Fold this sequence. Notes:
2 strands
Amino acid sequence: MRVGLNPLGASFIQLSDVEFASFMLAHELGHRTGKLIPDGSDRSNALSISNNGAVHKACFGDIPAHSSGMP
């Protein structure tokens, strides 16, 4: 899952199935509560990736991100 953009490209995290489901729920809950920027009409997915970064930082910060793709 992409969780951020940096000058070298995207950052990724590896999640189990349960972690992934939790991450998606947190992302969508962030939209419902107004904590995340609406990203449904962003064709580049940059806003969604930015929102994923916010969820990663807030809820999954103990899982390291990898800049060169999945480990």
